[in-house]
Design a protein that fits this description.
Domain SGNH hydrolase-type esterase: 167-326
Number of strands: 14
Radius of gyration: 21 Å
Number of domains: 2
Keywords: Hydrolase
CATH architecture of the largest domain: 3-Layer(aba) Sandwich
InterPro entries: Galactose-bd-like_sf (IPR008979), RhgT-like (IPR037459), SGNH_hydro (IPR013830), SGNH_hydro_sf (IPR036514)
Family: Belongs to the 'GDSL' lipolytic enzyme family.
Organism: Sphingobium naphthae
Helix content: 25-40%
CATH class of the largest domain: Alpha Beta
């Protein structure tokens, strides 16, 4: 027996057995409510659409779902935590069963207490909405939607690279329908060889991300070989926010370089993402510039510091102009009245643009992209995308603008 084979067998023997759950109709789990430290159904579900939680410590987990039913056809969509899209519209025929796997990152707000006399805090600053969502807690939550036919679920720790997202409301995992952001769509466009840990926050700036200790939390978990996607600008440009405003010529590049340096110090790979533009058309059907100075500043930092750049600012303009003034509102929150934040359709389009850029500029991460080729100048229609809405709805707009 060769040494590599021996080591492989030893590693397999040491790996904990996955947690196995029966989720078929009539199973015990489908009839019990979640209690802290255990597992069960979350409130707010229906006969078909429902949420299941399992108490687990922070980390990355490979979730393997067995989809299908002996007598009924299914069309299953799976989301995790705060509406992170994992699987979209998996169809099964009566009697057909298929397995799909994906990675879910879970976390709590806790930080290691700083040494005595050292500055810092013991946990991330959370808003009431943060506390209400299925993110900053001690459990893994799965949402099954559409016509879900779920025979079983297996959950096991996963040792995979983590793709961290730092940003604002256009990136974050939006808490409730109809708002959505590209960061919470990205997991469905990647395979189960990488985790997406979305630490972005509605209303966040580069400064507030630090003072709220979200930066400290993100970097406390980061390891060599991980990735950090950095997208700020929407709120950083606001002069009316004097404590967090940064100008595009001096302060904005300096803050970007702080994030870049901290990632590199840990052996991780920083990637800059220019902010998607707001949906403001001129009389000629072209998108007006509100973030160009910040996008240009980020491009200059990327060139000077040799950091890969995902130009979502350019791709978003191409997307909105391809859709046109009449159709583009259908990609935005609040029935199109919101010109900054997206709905599921718009978030999917932007995530597809990000995935395409990953494929073309990040050779180490590109093999994990499962999305088809995407051209922002030729976006699919909302009907073609067809993402099933989640159970939680809210009329409250995301913070920031």
């Amino acid at each position: 027996m060769t040494l590599p084979l021996i080591l492989s067998l030893m590693a397999a023997a040491a790996a904990p057995a996955p947690l196995q759950f029966d989720l078929s109709d009539g199973s015990a789990l489908r009839r019990q409510s979640y209690r802290a430290g255990g597992h069960g159904m979350e409130p707010g579900g229906a006969a078909d659409d429902y949420l299941v939680s399992v108490a687990l410590p922070p980390g990355n987990y490979r979730v393997t779902v067995r989809l299908g039913d002996p007598v009924r056809a299914g069309d299953t969509t799976v989301k995790a935590e705060a509406r992170r899209l994992m699987l979209r519209n998996v169809a099964t025929r009566p009697g057909q069963f298929v397995e799909r796997s994906f990675i879910v990152n879970i976390r709590t707000p806790a930080l290691a207490p700083p040494p005595e006399t050292a500055p810092g805090g013991t946990q991330v600053t959370l808003s009431p909405r943060d506390r209400a969502e299925y993110t900053w807690d001690d459990k893994l939550t799965l949402e099954f939607l559409g016509q879900p036919r779920v025979a079983g679920v297996a959950i096991a720790p996963a040792d995979v690279p983590t793709l961290y997202l730092a940003g604002d409301s256009t990136v974050t995992d939006q808490f409730a329908e109809p708002a959505a952001s590209w960061g919470q769509m990205l997991p469905a466009l990647l395979d189960d060889g990488v985790a997406v840990a979305n630490h972005a926050k509605s209303g966040a700036t580069m400064k507030s991300f630090s003072t709220d200790l979200r930066m400290a939390k993100l970097f406390s978990d980061m390891k060599a070989g991980d990735w950090l996607f950095i997208q700020f600008g929407h709120n950083d440009q606001k002069r009316q926010w004097p404590q967090t405003y940064v100008d595009p010529q001096v302060t904005y590049p300096a803050w970007l370089r702080v994030y870049i340096a901290e990632a590199r110090r840990r052996g991780a790979h920083p990637v800059l993402v220019t902010s998607p533009e707001r949906r403001n058309f001129d009389a000629d059907g072209r998108i007006q510039d509100t973030l160009g100075a910040y996008a240009d500043a980020m491009r200059q930092v990327a060139r000077a510091d040799q950091v890969p750049l995902i130009d979502l600012h350019a791709d978003s303009r191409a997307l909105y102009e391809a859709l046109g003034p009449d159709v583009a509102p259908t990609a935005f929150n609040d029935g199109g009245r919101d010109r900054t934040h997206h709905n599921n359709y718009g978030a999917w389009l932007l995530a597809s643009a990000v995935a395409q850029r990953i494929r073309t500029i990040l050779p180490a991460l590109a093999p994990h992209v499962t999305a088809p080729a995407f051209d922002p100048r030729q976006p699919p229609s909302a009907a073609q995308v067809g993402i099933v809405p989640s159970l939680i709805h809210s009329d409250q707009r995301p913070a920031g603008s």
